[in-house]
Amino acid sequence: MMRAWILPMLLVLSGSAVATGQIFQGSPAAATALLLAFLALASVNSPLIFPRSIGAQAAQQRSAVDGRPVVFWRPGCKYCIRLRIRLGRNARQLHWVNIWRDPAGAAAVRAANDGNETVPTVVVAGQPHTNPDPEWVRERLSPSM
């Protein structure tokens, strides 16, 4: 769990240090802008923007029942962030599995990607798709959802 927060915390600390330096140089406006930029980067890379993760086994069981895709992801992955942001509200319709928290999820991703932990890996109807286009994923969601 703590591993997911390393990058966001480093961004917050770095932004604070840079902003402090700008304040000492007499540029409070630049300090504010830089701090806000670093905070935005930290929030985008934090696990907070992703729907609550569940285990791989639970996600696969739920997907078998409701037909919704399963997304294997990890914090800090720019492609996972792109998928999450581009899906918008539709992201809550998917089952999200954080491979850093779930060893079974990491194993499923390695099995689908020749031993590599390449994410996002989206499983639709039992078929894995590595780093698919967000529009393609949106099309796979049931229209009734």
Overview of the structural elements:
The protein contains six helices and four strands; from the N terminus they run αααβαβαββα. It is of the alpha+beta class and 145 residues long. A hairpin with a 2-residue loop joins strand 3 and strand 4 (127-130). The chain has helices at 6-24, 28-44, 56-66, 78-87, 103-112, 134-140; strands at 70-73, 95-98, 121-124, 127-130. It has two domains: 2-48; 51-140, Glutaredoxin (3-Layer(aba) Sandwich), CATH 3.40.30.10. A four-stranded mixed β-sheet has the order 2-1-3-4. InterPro entries: Glutaredoxin, Grx-like_ET, Thioredoxin-like_sf. Residues 70-127 form the Glutaredoxin domain. This is Glutaredoxin domain-containing protein.
